[in-house]
Amino acid sequence: MELHSSRLSSQNLSRSVPQKKSLFLRFVFLGLLLLCVIIAGSIALLQSKQYQFTNIELYGIKTFPSEEVDQFIQKYLSNNWIGIIPQSSTITFSKTRLINTLQSEFPIIATVHVTLPEPNTLNIYVQEKQPVCIWCFSHDECVFLDHEGIVYSKAPNFSDGVYPIFTSEETKVFDQYLGKSIIDPDTMYRFITLFKNLQSNDIALSQVKFLENGDISFAIEKLFGKYPESSTEILGTLNQDDVLFIRNIVTGLNHQTFKEQFKLNPKSLEYIDLRFPEKIFFKFKGKEKPLETVSDHVSNIE
Fold this sequence. Notes:
There is one protein chain. The chain is α/β, with parallel strands linked by helices. Helices cover about 35% and strands about 25% of the residues. The chain has helices at about 1-45, 65-80, 95-105, 175, 185-200, 240-255, 255-265, and strands at about 55-60, 80, 85, 110-120, 120-130, 135, 140-145, 150-155, 165-170, 205-210, 215-225, 235, 270-275, 280-285, 290-295. The strands form 3 sheets. A 10-stranded mixed β-sheet has the order 8-7-6-9-10-11-12-13-14-15, with helices on one face. The longest helix is centred in the first third of the chain and has 46 residues, at about 1-45.
């Protein structure tokens, strides 16, 4: 009798195992089905026109075509996350991501402020960078530099005289430097200051040229009310003492021999050379050797 009971229990147990397994599979199937429904519903919700930006307003652009930014934003919003979730969805939209993308794509942009005044409206306020100076390459292509010495936009021709102009002997083009630093900020501000400090009633400079050998050239636009040749320059070095440099210029320009020679023929002046300590050289056309004076760093010339 006990043996018969044991056999029945064993048979019942063997039947219950497949039943439990079947029940488990049903729960798994229902769980996966529910998950698929949730995912499909979420995707449908994110793709719904009701939750898409339909109105985009762009403000603050002044010096370059706003259409370029508008087209870029439209293209940006038309992209999809993992191929199915639109970036134009108001539910998943990221202000930070859009701001970072705009500043990376358009180096001319300093700051971006994004607001959503209405659920389907995107307002974008842009503030452009302010140029500190202009940098011109050897082929006469010029660009604007910001406060970090970074190239962010081409400089139009009418900008001459508005900002300090730096030139170089480099042959690279705008696209190669866009968004990159072309000069150390400390060096940039140092020569902007020197360029401005050299301007006076007696002398006007047009630009600063950085030569490949480490020398610096200041182009003279006007001297003592006269206009020398456009190639006339004051020569210095990158490692010079700027205070001494200014003193030597004042000393040299007030030297009687120099004044007489210059006023006699302003177009004959080729350069004023201050690259050598305690010496000032003046080179005039037709002279085999430049005139040399010695500075005592104050005002006297021997």
